[in-house]
Amino acid sequence: MSGWAAPAWGLFLLLNLAACGEQKPAYPARQPPAGALTDVAQIAAGQALFREKCAVCHGHADEGRSPRADFFQPPAPDFTAAGYRTLDPAYLFWRIEVGKSVEPYLSRGSVMPAWRGLSDEQIWQLVAYLKSRAR
Ligand code: HEC
Prior knowledge:
Order of helices and strands: HHHHH
CATH superfamily: Cytochrome c-like domain
Low-confidence stretches: 9-22
Helix content: 40-55%
Radius of gyration: 18 Å
Largest sheet: none
Bound molecules: heme C
Distance between the termini: 48 Å
Number of helices: 5
Number of domains: 1
Mean pLDDT: 89
Strand content: under 5%
Number of strands: 0
């Protein structure tokens, strides 16, 4: 490597790390089972789970959203936001699994539960539903 390239490369790495810190922390790469995210039965199963376990915080008023959810800081995101259509399914899986139990969510005061009691199949059903909920 020539004289100037090494420091430039170091700076490049540093800037990249700083940029990542603003975005999402590292999470495990995972592949959904083939077809799981578009299968209507999986999406319907995910919707039932969402109504039962998630709508109290992430849902709309007619889905049983709690009035307390308006005061969460950070707020529970609304999964109808378009960005969720393209968000990495592996990230959604990981967040459902770990909730607020990892940084930076822990120090931010998140109230998102960790859903470790759900099976991988159930978590993929939820991911499939969240993807279908995005407008
Ligand atoms: C007690 C309220 C509460 C419940 C119940 C809850 N969540 Fe959350 N959730 C939150 C809050 C608050 C956040 C935002 C803070 C954070 O990212 O940790 C969040 C964040 C998330 C995120 C990360 C979104 C992003 O853009 O990074 C996902 C995915 C998620 N929740 C899915 C679910 C699913 C699926 C369920 C049901 C199985 C659920 N949540 C149940 C409060 C809740």
